[in-house]
Amino acid sequence: MKKIVIIAAALFVCVCASAQKVGIVGGFTSSELKLKNIEKSSVAQYHIGLAYNQPLILGFAVQPEIIYNVKGTSFDKIGGLADFKATMGYVEVPVQLQWGVDLLVAKPYVFAEPYIGYAVSGDWKAGVASVSTKGSIDLSELDSRWEYGFSLGFGVTALQRIQLSVKYFWNFENCKIDQYTDQIKENISENKGFTGVAISAAIFF
User: Fold this and answer.
1) Which helix (H) or strand (E) holds 5?
2) Contact 155, 109 (CB under 8 A)
3) CA-CA distance, 156 to 170, in Å (whole number)?
4) Could you tell me which residues are beta bridge partners of residue 203?
5) For the whole prediction, is pTM greater than 0.85?
6) How far, CA to CA in Å, does 45 sit from each of 27, 117, 132?
7) pLDDT of residue 153
């Protein structure tokens, strides 16, 4: 019996090792900041990186990724400005826990995904009428460059190689955008980080 268990475990490891896939992932990110008493709207940006998919048992799979994800938000009529837009670039490491049903040609699935990220870039753009100015965000002024959050979503894998997914994400760590410029520092009283939607496509090899 012990030998059978060892052989079965070895076969399982071999199957998983042969089934694992590495791929390129990228797509569209739409996000905004949770701010009180501020007229705001989401900003369309992007994400791109690498993904590693490891099938498990009973339809489960785990998919860690490392991506560069740009998030942003825009404000209307703030601090005497007609509009203000800020974007932040993060190196993120999300880890998806997927569950789905294999229908041979396609596998629809749902997933939960904790993630952590570190800010590596930031930019802002402000305008009054037809005049606009822009600049870089001084990341050294942030209380913390770290972010972390959680995503829920669904997707489908076609032909075991092409993956499409949609998710909604919540940030739990403050981004301290009230420190970016003197104009918005006086107007933003509370910040709970970026939330939004991401649509991704991946190709595995």
Assistant:
1) helix 2-19
2) yes
3) 22
4) 24, 162
5) no
6) 9, 16, 20
7) 96
